[in-house]
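Sharing a chain and its predicted structure for anyone who wants a worked example. Both blocks are below, sequence first, tokens second.
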Amino acid sequence: MSDQFGFIEGDCEFICFEPLSRGFKPMFDTNDFAVYDKPSGLCVHPNSRLSPYTLNDEIKHMFGNDANATHRIDQETSGLVLVSKNKKSEAVLKRLFSERSITKRYLAMVKGHFEHSIDIQEPLLRNDHPSLLISSVVLVHPEGKPSRTFIKPLQYFPEHDMTLVEASPLTGRTHQIRAHLFHVEHPIVGDPIYGQEAIDIARFLEKELTDEERLRKSSATRLLLHAHSLEFEYENKLYTIVSKEDFTARCFEAMRVNEK
């Protein structure tokens, strides 16, 4: 080594990821990919090496180090996550996502009576302000990125003044479905950010908001949004994968209502 460079002496520590399984299995499995039906509250990937259990633990434990989630859904969103088992399938599936060749449909329970289908085409802007509170909120703004979500009402519950809807995002912006539904004045039940006071948003992000407070302020203890189905073609075969979860029942559980 040249004299202009110094030498550093000391111990070097390597930290290796060791997946810790809790026995959570995929609901659909092939040679190249699998699909998990993720519960609300479970992160897909760890945020740091100190992060607790995530879906990534199960993916690596079940299929090895080359396996990866090919897309993300929010921690609070439940539903389908598509996982590649090897580098080849990962490249193919991520390309399909980037080309919008994978059709995704979500279910959401929203406030109010959503009477007619609507094609929302409002640009969305994410403010990268250093404040965590501000950067976590995406809003409709003329300088935002083109965004499109198709919403179809499925069932109205007059006793709770809320509607079960199907949401089909045709673009992939952060919080797209949540921001678009809030914009048309039908926020998702249980949303801790869109439609809430700034102080409560901050308390939620700091994990200071109790379930009881959240239930009182947003009508549910979790975000009532579910990734319900995936449809795509892989190696000349069409796959349509649908969640087996009874989302409506989970909604009433989170609202602490003993009925369907």
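Comments welcome. DSSP finds seven helices and twelve strands in the chain.
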